[in-house]
Design goal:
The complex is a heterodimer of chains A (about 375) and B (about 210). Chain A is α/β, with parallel strands linked by helices and about 375 residues long. Chain A is built from twelve helices and 17 strands. Chain B has three domains: about 45 residues, no CATH class; about 60 residues, no CATH class; about 50 residues. The chains are: A alpha/beta (about 375), B mainly alpha (about 210).
Chain lengths: ~375, ~210
């Protein structure tokens, strides 16, 4: 079968790999109908995530058709069209029972800090991802959800990560009616977080980024205020000034390890890997939020450590909330929102590229070429 | 409502055990939990074991964090450890996730693995794929100026490095001569000739000054 194949930082290709097999009684094999490249895939692509082995297939946002099921799979049958949450969760451990499907303790042998994730390095379990023609889906009775007949497949594929992550970013912010929410990052997650913030009753939603076309898209799609930090000398000071010198009630870091905007953070975090990614967005979020405010983190960082002003967290009484998204927990509500037209995620897909051109697809997405917001790989 | 009910029943259960602590749980409120609604509280919140699924076969060679007792019931098989990078990875897993050594060794293994991948490509006659693997076709199509600029900078950097190398190639000869001059121990004959010359210079100088 054809599959994306990681060869080292900045180098991927489509190549033929053996077909996946049922390795566990609760496995299913899914024929992929569409898979997206996620912003967090770029951390892998740039070689920033430890234990990303050559030969791995990325991809944790995908939909498909069930081709084969293991003997202990009862909720799916061959031919079902499914959307597959990016978390691999057993459904039995204490964390799954608590609804923390992103923190499953039975899906990732290599690390305890994170649960299993499709196509996200051996630090997240070493599973091949969905940027392929076929994929093995462990614990198939727990994660996959049958796509409703009236749902567009483009909407469905975005319900595997982008929409729930943006929504959870807003949810973790504990947004109260009338709150001012500042979102760092106008990528797909940031845009979806902006859109979701309104659902929680935000009074003002502001998005900060450095890419004009993305800011324009965010402004149009999420009806929010947008600012390019390249045109602002000091983003933190700017946010203070436009929020009555107090700061925002809620700040959301929707960027993670690839953040730009600080030469020191970029050098130590992205160029030399002296810290687990550039924490510029998080630094700004902590410094821009109001005293007693909430910083919600959905941007992905590596496992070592980062330079952030933790003293300010203490002095300002900030609550930091963060987690890998618990997709399964949020899906019923979000499927309703999509079916009722409250959310229209497919609008953010700007590029449809065949899987065999995956190296070009990564370059376009990584370098933000051709007005790219979200790339869908077609198999 | 179910969560509240579960929270309440757990509270009732525990309050009997904690009756000796005055005021225990008077302010408990699930809605005030900073993890709410991310974390659904239930009676088994503190359970440490659960009905584990069947073990996926082939787990013997799977590296696992030393913060867990064994391999999880399922695991990925995308790229088994092998070669020098595999040895480094095995070494990394001797350290816990809280140690920098664990992650830095894994990053080092990734870079070694990249070189192994290059070697693998060359063995399969695919070395030329470096250009296409980087997606430079798309870069050329949509951002030609950057490609040209980067290529020009690359050529300039290589040129400067080549120049420096050439100069270094010449410098050692000159440097050797200087070192030889500085540390050269003169022979007896050379000493005799040198002293004779100095003596003649001194006598000439003395005679001139007298005249």
């Amino acid at each position: 079968m054809l599959a994306m194949n990681y060869r080292g930082p900045g180098r991927v290709r489509a190549s033929h790999k053996p077909m996946p097999e049922i390795l566990h009684p609760q496995d299913a094999i899914v024929r992929v109908t569409g898979s997206c490249i996620c912003g967090s895939d770029l951390h892998l692509y740039h070689g920033n995530v430890p234990d990303t082995r050559v030969g791995t297939t990325f991809g944790h946002e995908f939909t498909g058709v069930v081709e084969e099921v293991g003997p202990e799979v009862h909720n799916l049958k061959v031919g079902d069209k499914v959307l597959v949450p990016f978390n691999i969760a057993c459904g039995r451990c204490v964390f799954c029972k608590q609804g923390l499907f992103g923190n499953c303790h039975e899906s990732n042998p290599e690390a305890t800090a994170v649960g299993g994730i499709f196509g996200y390095s051996h630090t997240a379990g070493g599973y091949d991802g969905g940027q392929a023609e076929y994929v093995r889906v462990p614990y198939a009775d727990v994660g996959p959800v049958i796509i409703p007949d009236d749902m567009d497949l483009d909407d469905a594929v975005l319900l595997t990560d982008v929409v729930p992550t943006g929504y959870q970013a807003a949810e973790m912010g504990g947004i109260q009616v009338g709150d001012t929410v500042v979102i760092f990052g106008a990528g797909p997650i940031g845009i979806m977080a902006a859109k979701s913030s309104w659902l929680f009753g935000a009074g003002r939603v502001i998005v900060i980024d450095q890419v004009d076309y993305r800011l324009e898209f965010a402004q149009r799609y999420a009806q929010c205020e947008v600012y390019n930090f390249r045109s602002i000398e000091d983003p933190v000071l700017f946010i203070k000034k436009i929020t009555d010198n107090l700061g925002a009630d809620v700040c959301i870091d929707a960027v993670g390890a690839e953040a730009a905007g600080s030469a020191l953070q970029t050098f130590t975090g992205r160029k030399t890997l002296m810290q687990a990614g550039s924490a510029t967005a998080l630094q700004w979020a902590i410094n821009s939020v109001k005293k007693g405010g909430v910083v919600s983190i959905v941007g992905v960082y590596g496992p070592t450590g980062n330079m952030i002003p933790i003293g300010n967290v203490l002095n300002k009484g900030i609550t930091i909330r963060a987690n890998q998204t618990s997709v399964k927990r949020l899906l019923p509500r979000l499927i309703d929102h999509v079916q009722n037209g409250v959310l229209n995620p497919k609008e953010i897909i700007t590029h449809r590229i065949p899987l065999q051109d995956v190296s070009d697809a990564y370059r376009i997405f990584s370098d933000k070429l051709d007005g790219c917001i979200k790339t869908l790989l077609i198999t | 409502m179910t969560e509240q009910h579960n929270g309440q029943s757990l509270k009732e259960k525990l309050s009997a055990r904690m009756s000796h602590i005055k005021g225990w749980g008077v302010d408990a409120n699930p809605k005030n939990d900073p993890t709410y609604p991310m974390r659904k509280r239930f009676d088994g919140d503190h359970m440490t074991s659960w009905g584990r699924p069947a073990q996926q076969p082939g787990h013997e060679d799977i590296l696992h964090s030393n913060e867990r007792p064994d391999v999880t019931r399922v695991f990925g098989t995308s790229a088994p450890v092998s070669g020098l990078s595999g040895m480094i990875r095995r070494c990394a897993f001797k350290y816990s996730e809280g140690r920098f050594a664990h992650w830095l060794l894994l990053l080092a293994a990734d870079r070694v693995n990249m070189v192994e991948g290059f070697a693998q490509d060359i063995c399969h006659g695919r070395a030329t794929n470096c250009i296409t693997d980087k997606g430079l076709k798309a870069k050329w199509k949509y951002d030609r100026n950057t490609v040209v600029t980067q290529a020009a900078v690359g050529v300039a950097v290589v040129g400067v490095l080549a120049l420096i190398c050439l100069r270094r190639h010449r410098l050692p000869q000159r440097g050797f001569a200087l070192v030889q001059h500085a540390f050269h121990q003169p022979s007896r004959l050379e000493n005799f000739l040198l002293h004779s010359k100095n003596l003649m210079d001194l006598s000439r100088h003395f005679l001139r000054s007298k005249i």
